[in-house]
UniProtKB/TrEMBL annotation:
Keywords: ATP-binding, Helicase, Hydrolase, mRNA processing, mRNA splicing, Nucleotide-binding, Spliceosome. Residues 14-178 form the Helicase ATP-binding domain. GO terms for cellular component: spliceosomal complex. The lineage of its organism: Eukaryota, Viridiplantae, Streptophyta, Embryophyta, Tracheophyta. This is RNA helicase.
Length: 650
DNA sequence: GTTAGGGTT
């Protein structure tokens, strides 16, 4: 701890904090900011009048950093030093330093807008610009001016955007703390390669043959490319190995890899052996691999974007930002001087790369965010003028307002309704929280809880359909429930009910190729949602997962509740074919996703109306996760849509 | 007739 660079700056940092309500700290990698800032403030006595909070964008970081600080202070985790993440609060009356995810802090500010228990709030890793951090930045700006008791705010960021954050907080002071990285030599390509898989392959082999020992970390965009490159590398390395150079181990690393495969990168290689780790941006911030000396950066990353004009998401391969490229390069300098090979010219880095990653708030649907802000009841708030560091477009905010209006969360004047207030208490997308409230009225809350929980984990449930996995299957695809023809929401419900019938057996999940991690997560979400709904519905007891199964049923009430909740995600079938058009504000032609279990009728046609969970544009525009609904439920929504006047919703 | 970057309440 004593040799962390930040320790020398303690006096300066404390002085600056004493004299200013907000301070921006540029803390480079390895500066020790995450563990030391809170302790400095504690030493100065800031924990006498309240708690020092440190937010993190990720759960694992909140846990691991707090553990470290507890250790350094020689206290038991959960007492003077603790953490709070979803499903787990390890703090006590005695807690003085609290690490928490930014999402948890947002939840807390819902019930206590002044956050009075905190004397200091440190927003760590603000340069990552997560949706939640961006909301917090806006809230902090209001709070430092308005809170009765004294509040200090510290924001840690990266070199390239520190100025901007400082400017946002009325030109507050900006301190730079050096990191503890070894120098990393950067090599640029002469031009962009036609294939970055091939180019990575060539660069990796060059390193293997010419450079001294040290692991190689290669940044690719996704699972597909990773698997391709791993195969090619294995092939080439095998043909090299006839004594000419050291051994090699090649490891893929991405988010959909089972945890036991992910942790393989943490075990050190045998002697005289080089590891090649072929990774997504998971290795940029979430996982740190020791022993890396060489980095190969493709310069690309996959990013999910939302288009408010169409309501459609797409997953695009885009160029990384300068901050990301530097973060990637820095991964080579953790243990000794390293080298970074950028598969693009310096001109591209300088002229084409953005300084900072486009913040998530400008790439997401904002219905949840806007509902959250409305529910805070901030005085004289105009959502369209909320002071964001990087404001989302008016179009995106209006899209959110329209969605909220259609599901009764705000009235025609844009004021939050009592339904909207209840919705904001649920940790769900607005469409699903609206569904729960309606389901409670119709006596099918238990089913809706399951559907909402399943959809909260959806991408982590079903197995990965990559080609290599296809071959690994021990048995042919098994018969999971089929949604009784009504579609994917009903299927998700039925799957969970089966699991419940099998006493939540892990073996059952494995047998059906369902991701165990995902299913356990669903169970926890469902429990949390049940508790909140029981509080809201004052003793409603219809929350048992096994309550509803009574032979054949048509799930009518549940589908009706879904129709109300997804009022802004409705589609009508075209008269003569099986395509649909969305009934939102701008009509889109879309198809039911081929993976859907929705079944056509005897004439081979789908039902006239469906609601969908999301629109995703891949090879074509698709509706993912659809549920058949009835015309008579749709009509009132269409009436409401006609009366809609966006300009009044502001 | 098909998608999977990373997070979070």
């Amino acid at each position: 701890m004593a040799n962390l660079p930040i320790v020398q700056f303690e006096k300066k940092i404390i002085e600056t904090v004493e004299q200013n309500p907000v301070v921006v700290i540029i803390g480079e990698t390895g500066s020790g900011k995450s563990t030391q800032l809170s302790q400095m403030l504690h030493r100065k006595g800031y924990t006498d009048s309240g708690i020092v909070a440190v937010t993190q964008p990720r759960r694992v970081a909140a846990v691991s950093v707090s553990r470290r600080v507890a250790q350094e202070l020689g206290v038991r985790l959960g007492e003077e030093v603790g953490y709070a993440i979803r499903f787990e609060d390890r703090t006590s009356e005695r807690t003085q330093i609290k690490y928490l995810t930014d999402g948890v802090l947002l939840r807390e500010s819902l019930s206590n807008p002044e956050l009075n228990q905190y004397s200091v709030i440190i927003l760590d890793e603000a340069h990552e610009r997560s949706l939640n951090t961006d909301i917090l930045l806006g809230l902090m700006k209001r709070l430092v001016g308005s809170r009765a008791s004294n509040l200090k705010v510290l924001i840690t960021s990266a070199t390239l955007d520190g100025e901007k954050v400082s400017k946002f907080f009325s030109d507050c002071p900006l301190l730079t703390v050096p990191g503890k990285l070894f120098p990393v030599e950067i090599f640029y390509s002469k031009e962009r390669p036609t294939s970055y898989v091939e180019s990575s392959l060539k660069t990796a082999l060059d390193i293997h043959v010419r450079e001294p020992e040290g692991d190689v970390l290669i940044f690719m965009t996704g699972q597909d490319d990773i698997e391709k490159l791993v195969l090619k590398l294995e092939d080439k390395v095998r043909s090299l190995e006839e004594g000419s150079c050291m051994d090699a181990i090649i490891l893929p690393l991405h988010g959909s890899l089972p945890p036991e495969m992910q942790v393989r990168v943490f075990s050190p290689p045998p002697p005289n052996c080089r590891r090649f780790i072929v990774a997504t941006n998971i290795a940029e911030t979430s996982l740190t691999v020791d022993g890396v000396v060489y980095v190969i950066d493709s310069g690309y990353v996959k990013q999910r974007q939302y288009n408010p004009a169409t309501g459609m998401y797409s997953l695009d391969v885009v160029q990384v930002s300068k901050v990301q490229a530097n973060q990637r390069a820095g991964r080579a300098g953790r243990t000794r001087p390293g080298k970074c090979y950028r598969l693009y010219p310096s001109r591209v880095y300088n002229d084409e790369f953005l300084d900072v990653t486009v913040p998530e708030i400008q790439r997401s649907s904002l219905a949840g965010t806007v509902l959250y802000l409305k529910s805070l009841d901030l005085p004289d708030i105009d959502i369209l003028k909320f002071d964001f560091l990087d404001p989302p477009s008016t179009e995106s905010l209006e899209d959110a307002l329209k969605q909220l209006y259609l599901i009764d969360a705000i009235d025609e004047n844009g004021s939050i309704t009592s339904v909207g207030r209840t919705m904001a208490e649920l940790p769900l997308e607005p469409s699903l929280s609206r569904t729960l409230i309606e389901a409670n009225e119709y006596g099918c809350l238990s089913q809706a809880l399951t559907v909402a929980a399943m959809l909260s984990a959806e991408t982590n449930l079903l197995p990965n359909r990559s080609k290599s996995n296809e071959k690994k299957r021990k048995h042919p695809p098994l018969d999971l429930p089929d949604g009784s023809g009504f579609g994917d929401h009903i299927q998700l419900l039925q799957i969970f009910e089966c699991w419940d019938e099998n006493d939540y057996d892990i073996g059952w999940c494995k047998y059906y190729d369902l991701q165990v991690r995902g299913m356990l997560f669903v169970k926890e979400v469902r429990k949390q949602l049940s508790q909140i709904m029981q509080k809201i519905a004052k003793g409603s007891s219809d929350v048992q997962a096994n309550q509803s199964r009574k032979g054949h049923q048509n799930y009518r009430n549940l589908r009706k509740a879904l129709c109300i909740g997804y009022a802004s995600q409705l589609a009508e079938r075209m008269r003569h074919h099986n395509g649909y058009r969305t009934l939102g504000f701008k009509s889109q032609l879309v198809q039911v996703h081929p993976s859907s279990v929705l079944q056509p009728d005897d004439d081979g046609l789908y039902g006239s109306y469906v609601v969908y969970h999301e629109l995703i544009s891949t090879s074509r525009p698709y509706m993912r996760n659809v549920c058949a609904v009835e015309r008579q439920w749709v009509m009132p929504i269409l009436d409401k849509l006609e009366k809609l006047n966006v300009s009044k919703l502001r």
